[in-house]
Amino acid sequence: MSDASEKPVENHVFEADVARLLHLMVHSVYSDKDVFLRELISNAADACEKLRYEAISAPELLGSDPSPRITLSLDAAENRLIVDDNGIGMSRDEMIEALGTIARSGTRAFMERIEAAKAGDGAQLIGQFGVGFYSAFMVASRVDVVSRRAGSEHAWRWSSDGRGSYTVEAVDLADAPARGTRITLQLMDDAKSYTSKWSVERIVKEQSGHVPVPIDLIELPDGEPSRIGDGTALWTRPRNEITKEEYADFYRSVAGHYDEPSLTVHFRAEGRHEYTGLAFVPTAKPYDLFDPTGKGRMKLYVKRVFITDDAELLPRYLRFVRGLVDTSDLPLNVSREMIQESPILTAIRKGLTNRVLTAIEKLAESDKDAFAKLWDAFGPVIKEGIYDDFERRAQLMALARFRTTASGDAHRSLADYVKDMKDAQAAIYYMTGSNLEQLQASPQLEGFRARGIEVLLLTDSIDSFWVTAAPDFEGKPFKSVTQGTSDLAQVPKLDAKETPDAEASATVKDFISFAKTTLADAVSDVRASDRLTESAVCLVAPEHGPDRQLEKMLQGAGRLDSAAKPILEINPDNGLIAAVAASTNEAFRVDAVNLLLDQARILDGDRPADPRAFAERLSRLFSQALKG
């Protein structure tokens, strides 16, 4: 027995973010507080899994108690709920790190969302941010955690009322579990139902019935333990024996989410390599979906022993998928280096990726509405694969869906686009930007609409990159409507009454030459446009190099020192252009040309190059108009 009496109680203040989070937990209202029990059971199961893994190289850690288990003790007389596990346990430093700080990113985002959430929404947020333990303070006025790390001769108690501070102290081994962690919740008056056997058993079976560790329930002081969770790994059971509800419960347990999976992929691969895969596509976006350092969250098991969730079993563009792979082809003491270099895992990664993508393809064919929701949530990430994954590029391009000038609120596939192309149309036209409404109002689209040519409207950041990596689709190249010549003259306009070409009159041609000379320092060329049918001017990028949107992105990221001079296109049929071209006032023409360039910049989402000069020119034109 250790002598804990000589060791003082340590007082600590919570990390600022934790203190704020606890305040929100205690003072927020949730429609479903039951989620706290799922979180504590998941943590206990993880501790048991970690012990199983460490015991591979150090079997003495198991001692005389080799079987993992979780015990829930209900004490109605004292209004307490106790969660015990015989897992790996925690040392003093591990306890402070795990329970006094929040190391994972996303905490601030979580708190901002939880503050804004309406009653009933909060339960969905808890599991998404790795703060499950703190959910205990939704139902407990005090939480005591006593833990002894496997193989250690010391045990420690962590205690807090959730009001900004906590204590840590050594405890006698007689007052601690032989190994693992005991969490005692002093329940609030309105949480007495969590001492009811019927209520707790219902919650466990609904939310944690498939954790791979047996769960026992006991009513204090004299009750006998009863098993309410058998610890059978769900993924080892035949698919036809598993209900949709059981899959959903397991998904919430393994993913830490509280939504329903939109797609479940459960399979067993046999042959050269044997393994079982169970993957879920969420309904809601994970909070870290666009984290640039984000990786997949698929867990790797070997013979039902948890090894790691950092094996990168899926490519980054499928990082929203949750689940696990269990294989018997790897040794239990697999090292990190072996994981990185293993040809077995390379084969598993390929097989798992193919299975997930095939399942998504089947969903696209069988349930268009469900696929549309999946694409709305994860399409921007899946499109990263068009840029990164050369091997599956054609498959991902066929899977992709887009908003277009012809689609309204619906999505269109590239196959749909190619099928409806005009006879003389040689390319798949696209336009990139950050805002759909702004794209739809862009003057560069006028000539395409006049000819009934469909244009892809691409608003995700990755769109500017994959269109440059994918050379074509079914032999049709991709071409930006904001770059180079448009080749629109090859396709007749829908309105036969309109002028069939963009030939400029002699006066307008002279004005274009004047504009080219006047703006020589700002643009690379000024030319008549067949893109424009209504607007006076627009800017386009040169034929070679990045288009306008990609150029802006590269400059903003510091990856492009200087931008290429744009091309100013002028609509020779526009009344304003004709009026300006007819003027013989040299000063007026200079001001007008510069204002037209700034107008094109504004239409392109930019600011005038020189706001002061822009304002002065505008004032001069107003004054001249008023005098006239």
Oligomer: single chain
| Tally of separate domains | 4
For the record, give the distance between the C-alpha atoms at the N and C termini, rounded to a whole number.
Answer: 102 Å
Q: What portion of residues is helical? A: 25-40%
Secondary-structure-derived class: alpha+beta
The fraction of residues assigned to DSSP E strands is 15-25%
Return Rg in Å. 32 Å
- By CATH, the superfamily of the largest domain comes out as Histidine kinase-like ATPase, C-terminal domain
Q: Could you tell me the number of beta strands?
A: 23
- The number of distinct helices, counting runs of at least 4 residues, comes to 21
CATH class of the largest domain: Alpha Beta
Biggest beta-sheet profile: 9 strands, mixed
How does the overall form come out from the CA principal axes?
elongated
Shape-level CATH architecture of the largest domain: 2-Layer Sandwich
How confident overall, as mean pLDDT? 87
CATH topology of the largest domain: Heat Shock Protein 90
Which strands sit side by side, in order, in the main sheet?
1-6-5-4-7-3-2-8-9
Explain the overall architecture.
- The strands form four sheets. This protein has a nine-stranded mixed beta sheet with strand order 1-6-5-4-7-3-2-8-9, with helices on one face. A six-stranded mixed beta sheet has the order 16-15-18-17-20-19. Strands 10-11-14-12-13 form a five-stranded mixed beta sheet, with helices on both faces.
- The protein contains 21 helices and 23 strands.
- By secondary structure, the chain is α+β, with helices and mostly antiparallel strands.
- It has four domains: 10-232, Heat Shock Protein 90 (2-Layer Sandwich); 235-370, 2-Layer Sandwich (Ribosomal Protein S5, domain 2), CATH 3.30.230.80; 402-489, Rossmann fold; 506-627, Four Helix Bundle (Hemerythrin (Met), subunit A), CATH 1.20.120.
- The longest helix has 24 residues, at 343-366.
- The protein is elongated.
